[in-house]
Design a protein that fits this description.
mainly alpha
Length: about 210
Amino acid sequence: MPPESAAVAEPDASARPAGRFWNVPNTLTVARLGLSVFVFAAISMEWYGWAFALFVVAALSDALDGYFARLLNQDTPLGRQLDPLIDKVIVAGAYIYLATIPGTGIFPWMVTTIVVRELLIQGLRSLLEGQGQAFGAKMVGKLKTLFQCLSVSAALLCLWLATPHQNLTVLRDAFTWIAVFLTIYSGASYLWGAGPALRGEAARRR
């Protein structure tokens, strides 16, 4: 009898992780990854109105998945890794496309700074959370993401309008420069905060 009960329990145990992954916030996160493909395609085909609309929807879904994770108590370790990773894919990808278009106010050095920072911090997050240490988003990191989304949205809106009002162009450039500043500042803040954990890990490896 005991072996039979163990055999019955085994499928249940294997089914639980899949159930934990396909919850509301993780489904929104994966959907945002699919949406990013259409954003990039729309930019490449110069359908800037569609690119703007799809990017705004993706940005709003980023706020919703965090809200539902807290509301439904469906926060998972994989979701905490996946959500910021997909944010970086869509934002960095949009910046890479926009940097190739004249008149967007986005320069290659800005994109390089953003991409390097995002890769570095994502690697640091994976390392520390893989060791069981918390690596949650700080307020400055959330502000960085907000201004990056505002910067990309404003750049796409200006491209869509073709001859935007000067005030909108100034606002677009302000969003971009603030986003770059917060990218650098938040990256330095995360690295400084992770310093003790990294030194401890290096000491254990000796």
